[in-house]
User: Fold Hemin ABC transporter substrate-binding protein from Mesorhizobium hawassense.
Amino acid sequence: MRVSFSLRAALAPMLGVLLAVVALPTRAEDGTTVFSDTSRIVAIGGSITEIVYALGEEGRLVARDSTSNYPEAAAKLPDVGYMRALSPEGVLSVNPTGILALQGSGPKEAVDVLKKSRVPYIEVPDHFNHEGILEKIRVVGKTLGVDAKAEKLAAETDAKLTAAEKQTASIKDRKRVLFVLSTQGGKILAAGSGTAADGIIKLAGAVNAVEGFSGYKPMTDEAIVSAKPDFILTMKGGGPPISEDELFANPAIASTPAGTNRKMISMWGGYLLGFGPRTAEAIHDLAVSLYGNQVTD
Assistant:
């Protein structure tokens, strides 16, 4: 008997749950959770997908989220939606044996449903610093059962990150950088502490011009002026682009050193803020944009 496409689509989430009954997570020797069946993994989070590919384990992936656009081959996988706006039905529709999700995936209600579905759900920590990247690589490798590959990739990444950070070690005049996420409605939404933007600015040898708050928050004109940024940093992709004309037309921005000298840097979001295998290259590129030939090899 042939089953119609619509019926198969309706049954897919239930099939995913049924499959998970025989694919429950197990414990590694160190007590961490790992997948017992790694044949059909959904990767949620661009850096997670990058790491899986860097480990050479992309054959295990059956789907990815919309932030997973690198490498290009990842775009051929089914897209289960934006990592912060997940639908449990969408994730389960690909019948996964495991879900590997970056910390911060959501919304919470959707994640709670996924965890209760009994499809193994493993959350990967996301810390915006050198060690955080290495931890992420090791966690992904362990959950996939490829610890040796992960240690090799972690060692290579560690060396690259160390070299990238040393490139600005001798610079005395540290640039002040304001990361602007959005200018919608004329409001400057900027990155405070504890953000990926804050982390990458520091790794590139600069100073986050924002002080006094964490996360991404709107800034008053007075706060922008007081921040005195030398550069405005923005990202491409992931939202409406911010043009130089729009940015420097803002009176508060225009009155800062960055505005006076029209100093704006724009980089692809996944590359700049991903904190994955390519972060050493992103650190270098940002540092060169900030310091030019002061950056040493």
Summary: The chain has 13 helices and twelve strands. Residues 1-22 have pLDDT under 50 and may be disordered. The chain has two domains: 5-164, 176-294. The two ends are 66 Å apart (CA to CA).
